[in-house]
TrEMBL record:
The keyword Transmembrane is assigned to this record: yes
Transmembrane parts of this sequence: 31-47, 54-71, 91-112
Lineage top rank: taxon: Bacteria
Organism classification: Bacteria, Bacillati, Bacillota, Clostridia, Lachnospirales
Pfam families membership: SpoVAC_SpoVAEB
Protein name (Swiss-Prot/TrEMBL): Stage V sporulation protein AE
The keyword Membrane is assigned to this record: yes
């Protein structure tokens, strides 16, 4: 049942984003930034953690989860390093995920030989 719940929640998030893309003039990059910011705001208000525990991967995999990870990293680092943590925390919290995306993207480009669109 957890898989079904994660699928439905993740699908609902994607459906809402698709409706926003279809009915506004916002560019996809701005919508992505909006999702990260919403995830951070929900984390700051303490809403995201119970939601992600209930929804599982359906809530943590989309960009909302990335925003929440950044928020938790900044909050932790601010407790340890003070104001400097505002700048440091997001990088340390998300470094592994970003590094993994870059490494696997690079390996995928070596294996599959991508070409430019013509």
């Amino acid at each position: 049942m957890e898989y079904v719940k994660a699928f439905l929640v993740g699908g609902a998030i994607c459906a809402v984003v698709q409706v926003v893309m279809d009915n506004t003039k916002l560019m996809p990059g701005r919508i992505m930034v909006l999702l990260v910011v919403i995830g951070s705001i929900l984390g700051a208000f303490g809403i995201y953690q119970p939601f992600s525990e209930w929804a599982g991967a359906g809530a943590t995999v989309p960009l909302l989860g990335f925003g929440n990870s950044l928020w938790k990293g900044v909050l932790k680092s601010m407790g340890e390093d003070g104001f400097l943590g505002v700048f440091k925390g997001g990088f340390t919290a998300s470094a592994v995920g970003i590094s993994g995306a870059l490494i696997f993207g690079y390996l995928g480009s070596i294996i599959f030989k991508p070409k430019m669109k013509s």
